[in-house]
Amino acid sequence: MKIKSLFLALLVCACQSSQISTTREPEVGPLGEQAMVSSAHPLATKVGVEVLKNGGNAIDAAVAVKFALAVVFPRAGNLGGGGFAVYRLNDGSTGALDFREKAPKNASRNMYLDEAGNVIDNLSLIGHKAAGVPGSVDGILKLHEKLGTKPLAELIQPSIELAYYGFTITEDQADEFNEKSEEFVEVNGPDFFLVKDQLWQAGDTLKFTELAATLTQIRDRGREGFYGGIVADQIVKEMQSGGGLITEEDLKAYNAQWRNPITSSYRGHKIISMPPPSSGGVAILQLLQGAELYDVKAMGHNTAETIHLMTELERRVYADRATHLGDPDYYDIPVDMLLDPEYNKERFSSISLKKKTDSQEIKEGEVEIIESVETTHFSIVDPEGNAVSLTTTLNSFFGCKVYVKGAGFFLNNEMDDFSAKPGVPNQFGLVGGEANSILPEKRMLSSMTPTLVEKDGKLKMVVGTPGGSTIITSNFQVIMNVIDHGMGMQDAVNATRTHSQWLPDRILIEERPIKPNVIKGLEKLGHVIERRKSMGRMDCILVRDDGKLEGGADYSRGDNYAEGF
Fold it and tell me: Could you state, in order of their start, the residue ranges of all structural domains in the chain?
């Protein structure tokens, strides 16, 4: 009898433990009365906070944070990549800046194909030919020129000092340096300084003295300090040494583009996001238009029914992405059609809540991969109410792994974001067509989705994340977590995420707490489930009903850190 009682007691405890493991205690992120910065690294966040405390606006802080991330977060923060920014000023005016990389002038449609017309493995991923013309420096300087208030020298100096005097690395960074050591050696040679005889460890000091010199050139000479002079010479020399395509002419010709944000509504909120060549803005607005057709709140958070609905919406939107999206300067993109509520109502009309739709019924294609690749994002709100959402990337961790000797930074591998061959997936498992084919000076399609949300004419949210193809769906879920499920920002960021993208025909679900029987419920609807360690690293800000700013930084998935005052 005692044994039976003990067994029942243990069973009750096990059930209680199971329930605890799937229930998250609500968590409030850092609060600020006036301002908030959320970024991928504590040192970068603190640089931004100091700028705001010293009277700089959100744009000034964005400049400082962007350059700081180039030092302390070299896997994705960068001078050798590109990105997108969406801003909203306190008078309600908005804008978007496209500083996406471009294909070099010597790029060609079939440059990654062999004589038989097949894609050559890794040629668009690793090494000099994978690099597009960098846009980060031109972009951030254009942002500062138009909207900044503080001198550039004041904003870039903290990054110069971080690079020259060094900083201590985190465990996550040490692991990443160690993991990429073989690729570093393959591309940069056996004496590459980021490869050590002993493994990197948390607390080790890292200095980028060459990068400090490059940042000093930019501080003193502006755009010419990167796209001309000694730094440009170093980039071109590096390209020539490895058979890359970027020339002095490419660097001089690069020009970031101001674009008009795209907008839509979701349950009384205005959504402001990035237009093409980001696919993210169009996709997230389509997803939210689809979600608004259903009572998501009543369905419940991360239930089988809700995840099934999100999956069905995502499959149709990613199929549209593959068909229609590319660089608007080279291809007539039907943005108005894709954002037409009537089009989307019809597009989503075939969704059944009783069973999954086979992806081949949505659009023919074949993909077997979804890779997790790193970008970085930061969100800023200043004491005047100006807001910036900025996402920047090298594409893969450390881009193409090419370190520009003498200049101190890695180059991107964004050429992989083109369709090397229509219908053939890139490293994210994303398929593209003619709209995203390779042409000289063309911008490649992106999933980056810097986004702002308004409510009643006032700023409500600043959101964004890295994560390759999962960027769009991560943002989608965080916005719904706040609006539909009533979560605060940190709670919305902490929540377990899922992802689907038309092909491959499966759902990714993080290895995090999720309600009992959800997996079984999804499988019963016909879905194939694959667990992933994590997806995305959100950096977000919520303007709460009491007027305070709540930061939501993905500290449990990375080194992300939010701070306000």
Answer: 49-258, 259-372+448-564
Give the tokens for residue 170.
């985190």
Instruction: For residues 156 and 62, give the distance between their C-alpha atoms in angstroms, rounded to a whole number.
Output: 11
DSSP symbols for 354-370: SSPPPHHHH--------
Q: Is 80 exceeded by the pLDDT of residue 350?
A: yes
DSSP 8-state secondary structure symbol assigned to residue 64: H
According to the 3-state scheme, what is the secondary structure of 113-144?
ECCCCCECCCCCCCCHHHCCECCHHHHHHHHH
Encoding tokens for residue 266?
């979701």
What's the N-to-C CA distance of the chain in angstroms? 61
Which residues, other chains included, contact 123 with Cβ-Cβ below 8 Å and sequence gap of 6+?
112, 129, 130
CA 156 to chain centre: 23
User: Using H for helix, E for strand and C for coil, what is the string for 503-543?
Assistant: CCCCEEEECCCCCCCHHHHHHHCCCCEEEECCCCCCEEEEE
The percent of residues in the chain predicted with pLDDT above 90, rounded, is 81
Cβ-contact 236, 248 below 8 angstroms: yes
What sign does the CA torsion over 151, 155, 158, 162 have?
negative
* HSE value, Cβ hemisphere, 13 Å, CA-based, for 357: 26
**442: which 2 tokens?**
């063309």
Percent of the chain exceeding pLDDT 70 equals: 91
Q: Which residues are marked as active site?
A: 375
Query: What DSSP character marks residue 376?
Result: E
For 129-167, the pLDDT digits (tens) are 999 999 999 999 999 999 999 999 999 999 999 999 999
d(CA 334, CA 283): 13
Residue-wise pLDDT tens digits, 210-231: 999 999 999 999 999 999 999 9
Task: Say yes or no to pLDDT of 17 above 60.
Answer: no
What are the residues whose beta carbons fall under 8 Å from the beta carbon of 519, sequence distance 6 or more?
A: 509, 529
| Res 505: pLDDT | 86
Residue 530 φ then ψ, to 5°: -130, 125
Q: Please identify, in words, the CATH class of the domain defined by 259-372+448-564.
A: alpha beta
How many residues in total does the chain contain? 565
Q: What does the CA dihedral 356, 362, 364, 366 come to, rounded to 10 degrees? A: -40
Consecutive H or E run containing 99: strand 94-99
Which uninterrupted H or E stretch holds 157? helix 152-165
C-alpha distances (whole Å) from 258 to each of 136, 143, 223, 263, 277 are 14, 9, 17, 16, 12
